Amino acid sequence: MKEAPGPEDARRALGRLLEAVLASRAEANAVFDILAVLQSERPEDIQEAVRACRRLFGALLQRGELFVGQLPPEEMVLAGSQGATRKYKVWMRHRYQSCCTRLGELLAHPSFQVKVSESHPLEKPKWEGSYLFPRELLKSVVRGLLSPEEDRTLLLSHFRSYLEYDDIRYHTMQAAKEAVARATDGHPTVPLAFWNNVFALLSSVSLPRQESTQVNLYVPHTEPSEKWKVVHLKEHRKAFQHMWLSFLKHKLPLSLCKKVLVMMHDAILPGLAQPSLMIDFLTRAYDAGGAISLLALNGLFVLIHDHNLEYPDFYRKLYGLLDPSVFHVKYRARFFHLADLFLSSSHLPAYLVAAFAKRLARLALTAPPEALLMVLPFICNLLRRHPACRVLVHRPHGPQLDADPYDPQEEDPAKSRALESSLWELQTLQQHYHPDVATAASTINQALAVPEVSIAPLLELSAFEIFERELKKAPKSVPLEYLPSQGLLGRKDQLCAQFFTLD
After folding, report:
1. Could you tell me which residues come within 8 angstroms of residue 28 by beta carbon, excluding any fewer than 6 positions away?
2. Residue 399 pLDDT grade (very low, low, confident, very high; cuts 50, 70, 90)
3. What is the reported pLDDT for 492?
4. Is the pLDDT at 503 greater than 70, yes or no?
5. Considering only CA atoms, which of 310, 257, 252 is closest in space to residue 286?
6. Residue 199, exposed/middle/buried by CB under 10 A (0-12, 13-18, 19+)?
7. I want to staple 263 with a disulfide (CB 3.0 to 4.6 A). Which of 62, 242, 267, 320 is the partner?
8. Residues 267, 278: Cα–Cα separation, whole Å
């Protein structure tokens, strides 16, 4: 029985076929043998065939031996009276199309990696010096990457290197927008795999922060024109904006919403032509509640602080996010960092700041120690910034209160009556079992120093770090006293004393 040819034999055979096709047009039919290997079941053969096709059609593209323009039907051209050269170019262009189709099918094959090889576009120029790019080929690649059935994260990681080229990045953004529109048009439900693939592609696109004099194009051009959109950063920003808006207008899975919100402030908003257009998505996320609302704060902060966005009832909704779970969520540090920034303005009314301080103090009664070591300085900083709120800890001529007037169930901080109350919760925490918490709560017993205490080192504090810190402390000497036992319960004459003598 004859053994199947090994990888080395297949490589040599493909090499001979490749040389024959490139050496003479009379051997053009050998291209069918090369394309046939792409149908192989062995990954090694497929890899060799992909390399051979890349070398073959790359050389033909450089020679100009593929038909340029709208491809006519093969049968019509071969049966016509056109010259042999034109027939050859049309025939070989159809072989090239077959190769591209098969490579698109092989995108998910474990032995295949994304390669964009058409550096000489095969479309016909509309005018002399017009911008040319193999758009259709790139669209087919993007459609293959955004599979609705399979996870293409690994392939997308290989494709990411091509996004450094301005022309590939620009047309990828347009192709991604079209792919999302096509997948969602008339389809009430879209598979999760598709959304994950789209997010993986969109999050790989990164725009330069400022215009560059050097244009980095994958398709070579002798002299780029200023009329081309692909050479201008503002056009990239528009395409980037359309791409993200087409994605975010759909109802996305909760896990994807969180990922988008995490990167919104530093990876998405800076690249948009009009960042304010993200307000609809961010307000929907902010109104959702829970961790989604906490994550939306970063993007809203950028719009409010850098783009002068006016957001009604923002502080009322921020106040509503303060519940017991805020000390236990994954994004606790991010939330308190932003809350500290939002409450740093000296123009905030005293009743509003008092409501936040009182709500945090009430929640602190059941908070874990690692959260308390951050929240207590946070509250004290609020009192330092807003002297009108210090009546919460010192009201020399105030009335004696039989009950706390603060209403923790009131959603509107203006109606919570926090300014009429006191921070008795902090005095209660001075009896906390953890000595560091008790010390931090005792700060209100003295006059608050003017400089604020930085809470940045305390935002990421965890229970494990507190435990490790306690273990590293030098042990203190504790005096002990030992009294010899006098029998069980101190009585020598008891009947059972002889069995329980401890000396």
Report:
1. 21, 88, 91, 92
2. low
3. 58
4. no
5. 257
6. buried
7. 267
8. 13
| 142: nearest Cα among 110, 184, 170 | 170
Mean pLDDT for the chain?
83
Q: Choose among 433, 436, 438: nearest CA to 473.
A: 436
For residues 199 and 260, the answer to whether their CB atoms sit within 8 Å is yes
- Phi/psi at 362 (nearest 5 deg)? -65, -40
Cα separation, 430 vs 469, in Å, equals: 21
* 8 Å CB contact between 370 and 461: yes
142's tokens: 């993007």
Residue 252's nearest CA partner among 300, 185, 195 is 195
Give the mean model confidence (pLDDT) for residues 171-186: 90
Report whether 369 contacts 434 (CB < 8 A): yes
What is the DSSP secondary structure assignment for residue 267, as one 8-state letter? I
- The CA-based angle 354-358-359, given to 5 degrees, is 115
Give the model confidence (pLDDT) of 43-75 as tens digits: 788 888 888 888 888 888 778 888 777 777 877
The Cα-based distances of 284 to 251, 293, 491 in angstroms read: 11, 9, 75
What distance lies between CA 383 and its chain's CA centroid? 36
User: What span, in angstroms and rounded, lies between the C-alpha atoms of 140 and 255?
Assistant: 28
In degrees, rounded to 5, the angle at the alpha carbon of residue 498 between the alpha carbons of residues 497 and 501 is: 75
444-448's contacts with Cβ under 8 Å and 24+ in sequence apart are 444/380, 444/383, 444/393, 448/380, 448/383, 448/384, 448/390
pLDDT band at 1 (very low <50, low <70, confident <90, very high): very low
- Report, in angstroms and rounded to the nearest whole number, the Rg of the chain calculated over CA atoms: 35
CA distance 50 to 113: 10
Nearest Cα residue to 67 out of 87, 97, 89, 95 = 89
DSSP structure class, residue 91: H
Is pLDDT of 397 > 70? no
Q: Residue 486: pLDDT above 70?
A: no
Q: What pLDDT does 126 receive?
A: 46
Tell me which residue of 367, 363, 350 sits closest to 320, measured CA to CA.
Answer: 363
Sort 254 into a burial class: Cβ within 10 Å, 0-12 / 13-18 / 19+.
Answer: exposed
Comparing C-alpha atoms, which of 36, 4, 1 is closest to residue 17?
A: 36
Q: What is the DSSP string of 270-326?
A: GG-S-GGGGHHHHHHHHHH-HHHHHHHHHHHHHHHHHH----TTHHHHHHHT-SGGG
Burial class, 381, CB count within 10 angstroms (exposed 0-12 / middle 13-18 / buried 19+): buried
Q: Which run of H or E residues covers position 139?
A: helix 135-145
Largest separation between any pair of C-alpha atoms in the chain: 130
Query: Residues 6 or more apart from 92 whose CB is under 8 A from it?
Result: 28, 31, 60, 65, 66, 67
Give me 287's structure tokens. Answer: 């109104």
